[in-house]
Design goal:
This protein has helices spanning 41-47, 71-79, 111-116, 125-146, 154-159, 162-171, 178-189, 194-217, 223-228, 239-253, 256-269, 272-280, 285-295, 326-330, 364-381; strands at 6-7, 56-59, 65-68, 84-85, 151-153, 231-232, 235-236, 302-305, 309-311, 314-316, 321-324, 386-387, 394-396, 402-405, 407-409. By secondary structure, the protein is α+β, with helices and mostly antiparallel strands. It has a domain at 6-112 and 130-153 and 258-409: Orthogonal Bundle (Cytochrome p450), CATH 1.10.630. A 5-stranded mixed sheet has the order 2-3-11-8-4, with helices on one face. The chain has a 3-stranded mixed sheet with strand order 1-13-14. α4 (125-146) packs parallel to α15 (364-381), α8 (194-217) crosses α10 and α11 (256-269) runs parallel beside α15 (364-381). The model has no long low-confidence stretch (mean pLDDT 91).
Amino acid sequence: MSQGLDSTATVSPKSPVPGHVPPNLVVDFDAMNPLLGDERYHDAYARMSGPEVPDIFWSPYNGGHWVVRRDNILAEAFAAFENFTSANGMTVPRSADTRPKLPPVETDPPMQGVYRKLFSSAFTVPALKAREDSVRALAVSLIEGFQARGRCEFVREFAQHLPMRVFLGMVDLPDDDRLYLISLADSQVSSGTTKSKEEMLGKLMGYVGQKLAERAKNPGDDLLSKIATAEIEGRPITPFEAMSVGSLLLIGGLDTVASMMGHIMHFLAGSETHRRQLLQSPIIIRDAAEEFLRRFSLTNPARSAVRDLEFHGVHVKQGDMILLATPFGAVDPSKYDNPLAIDFARKSTTKTVFGAGPHVCPGSMLARMELRVLLEEWLPRIPDFAIDPDDRPRIRTGINGSFEHLPLVWTPK
């Protein structure tokens, strides 16, 4: 059965190559729209992982930028905020210079850490353990809601429910707003024009700003209330700071885990061997989740150079954008033997799945718990499933590579 993908993306126009970039470092690769033909998402990155491609190369797409394709160099660049700043935006093409910087993602230490403290308590081990029973109950309810039907559209019927509803509960926002918020969050991580992204970000911040104003007047125990009533270095948080922190939390909470779930279920639909391993030895699910996280790393954040510098033999000029594409770390053959293979016995040592350094994703432990719950609750109920042979999956590329349509079928018990 074919598991080829349809993609809605179009290749970006090329930009002139700056004079300081040697021709031998220019590579024809658009990380926001990387797929050729029937490729799966990570196949596109594996295609560029051979020795003929420089470890750091220049892509002429999305305004032109450097791309890092080695896991160890990715980890180093993520951590080196003194060389590669987030203040000029974390996407390519770079954000407009006229737009105010959005904390915490567009700030560097030490202020970045000050903003992160506003929500870090929600992602501690005790806080997440307290939520696990409700996450598991929700997963079971969703699965049993379509189990007897013998089919589901996984993205719409599960992936856009479980992580989103968990996060909306943390910020006390109504589930009725879920699809609207998903559309706004998706616009920030899919390929699209800078103008359209800015317009949709404005709508998201407007929504969040209204909720924050309500919480400031009548705070509760939720995460948005904590942000609305917070202090920053002894002064009240400003409305813009609160809107920024709240909006960026929503973007992170409403997309990345759902995207990862899509890749995992697409893979398992085509691998009875791996499904059997997990069913027969549930004790390996925790290790399996780590291997899935490694194999399906999917984010493409960016930084910009603070100054002219030599970085692993490449002359990077001040202001150059550098893309830290975590899918390259996932398929790095210098890091992993047979990197495209899924091996539950593999000990993943990557430090770049959720970014690294000061901007490492605060929700990484929540993501791990949700992925583990998916595997533990789905497989005993629906052990054998496949891609609908009459309905091709569809993927969306951009800052994240995400399934937007994943039709699964099985024989009901």
